[in-house]
Amino acid sequence: MNRLCVIIFGPPGSGKGTQAELLRDYFGVAHISTGDMLRESVASGDARGREIAAIMNSGNLVPDEMVNCMVEERIEQPDCAAGFILDGYPRTVAQAKLLLELLGREGIAPVVVHLRVDYNEIVTRLSSRRVCPADGAVYNLITNPPAVPDVCDRCGSKLLIRKDDRPEVVRERLSAYGRKSTPVLEFLETAGYRPFEVEGGSRTPQAIVREIVGLIEAHQGKAA
Questions:
Q1: Structural domain total, the chain
Q2: Which terminus of the chain is more solvent-facing, meaning fewer CB atoms within 10 Å of its CB: N or C?
């Protein structure tokens, strides 16, 4: 099997991270989250981490060149020998261009997967989430409610709704995702990597990943 690269897109609340982890386990490849990479770099306290922290604390975006450099270094790690899942990257057309150049040098043809979920469903899902401020427990009023409304099962603290989970904030996050992701997806399709559109919605994560695996394996079979 050729070295696998899956680029997975999906709006906030689509279950993108869960699918990336399931694909990682199925194919035995690495799961690369650029958000995690940036947080880990900041936590390391090294020169680059301090630079990234300064950029983020000032409210600016980490430059594409820096993110691409981190990804290039990451995919050379031993756990990426068989392949990797890219989660949250590329976020811009500039990043996508540099990524395709990098993958081209490595002889890797990426598979692009786009999780589609009705925005109203995401708003309902995320705005139903509640968090315990004391022990960090997470509940969902629809799928995993506490035994007593608004009270943590474990410690009895009053549950809170995070600012990012308020309906108006979720809608703005979804709108921002659409504005930013559409040009990237269009660029990848024009470059010859048409995204596989996969419906997320109310299906189980296992059902969704089975469809994605089938699409990837069929694609690899054609490319072989």
A1: 1
A2: C
